[in-house]
Amino acid sequence: MTAGGRSWGDLRPRLITGLVLAAAGAAVIWAGGAVFGLTAALVVAVMVWELSAMIAPEKGPEAVQLAVLSAAAILLARVLPPVFTLPLLLAPGLVGISLLKRRRFLVPVAVSLVLLGTYGLVWFRDTFGMVWMFWLVGTVVATDIAGYFGGRAIGGPKFWPRVSPKKTWAGIVSGWVAAVLVTLAMRGPGEAGAFIALAVVISFASQMGDVAESAVKRRAGVKDASGLLPGHGGLFDRFDALLGAALFMMAASLVIAVLGLNVGQ
């Protein structure tokens, strides 16, 4: 099945896998606390393993070691005083330089961003609670779905063909519209005004997370991070956008804290 010359053959496995992931994700978000933290540690371990396997496929044992170290960093960062958070999250990337010994600039940057983004999700759930977490995830998921269908159905000019050949401006804008609709649905027209611009920025941040992962995959010469998820590739392929959104939210929160602004939850 095609639309505008674009294949829709992967739609069924994407839909089934997406529904399973959505159900599991909703349960983990609802549980919060230790369940969310442990799940985040498991997910980051898989993503770092996928990333390591892409960068240095011949270093299987080292990839596992780096994955375990990354999971431990997430767990410790959640329970230790804040002064330890940044060193813990940066440590696996620095260790990865000696373990993988390839692409020595890419390893610390990519691994560190994955850990910072994953910790950002844990921080967001712990700080703002379940409802806001559902809003963040809903915004990212709606952006991804709308971008997929909008990009394939409409087509048109590419957003950044050198890095992400399939991403179009139609998909980008479709994602922004979907983010606004999610915000309107969750906040109501009377309260959503102040959050619409934030939703669009989060949507764009999630799209940049996807673009960043595409750049890593192009450098590594692979199509997907792994084959763990039918129709979706690997966990890194599914969480890249959410990591981008989480990184933006952490950065925005830091700016707000530095400026001394009072933003209600």
Automatic annotation (TrEMBL):
Q: For this UniProt record, give its keywords in alphabetical order, as a comma-separated list.
A: Cell membrane, Lipid biosynthesis, Lipid metabolism, Membrane, Nucleotidyltransferase, Phospholipid biosynthesis, Phospholipid metabolism, Transferase, Transmembrane, Transmembrane helix
Q: Reaction catalysed by this chain?
A: a 1,2-diacyl-sn-glycero-3-phosphate + CTP + H(+) = a CDP-1,2-diacyl-sn-glycerol + diphosphate
Chain segments annotated as transmembrane: 20-49, 69-93, 105-124, 130-149, 169-186, 192-209, 241-261
- Group of enzyme by EC: transferase
Q: Which GO terms describe its molecular function?
A: phosphatidate cytidylyltransferase activity
Record-level GO BP terms: CDP-diacylglycerol biosynthetic process
EC number, UniProt record: 2.7.7.41
User: Quick check: keyword ATP-binding in the entry?
Assistant: no
Q: What is the lineage of its organism?
A: Bacteria, Pseudomonadati, Pseudomonadota, Alphaproteobacteria, Rhodobacterales
Q: Spell out the subcellular localization from the entry.
A: Cell membrane
InterPro entries referenced in this protein's UniProt entry, alphabetically: PC_trans (IPR000374)
Its pathway is:
Lipid metabolism; Phospholipid metabolism; CDP-diacylglycerol biosynthesis; CDP-diacylglycerol from sn-glycerol 3-phosphate: step 3/3
Identify the GO cellular component terms for this protein: plasma membrane
Q: Name one Pfam family in it.
A: CTP_transf_1
- Highest taxon, organism lineage: Bacteria
What is the recorded membrane topology of this protein? Multi-pass membrane protein
What's the chief localization of this chain?
membrane
- Spell out the family assignment given in the record's similarity comment: Belongs to the CDS family.
Entry protein name = Phosphatidate cytidylyltransferase
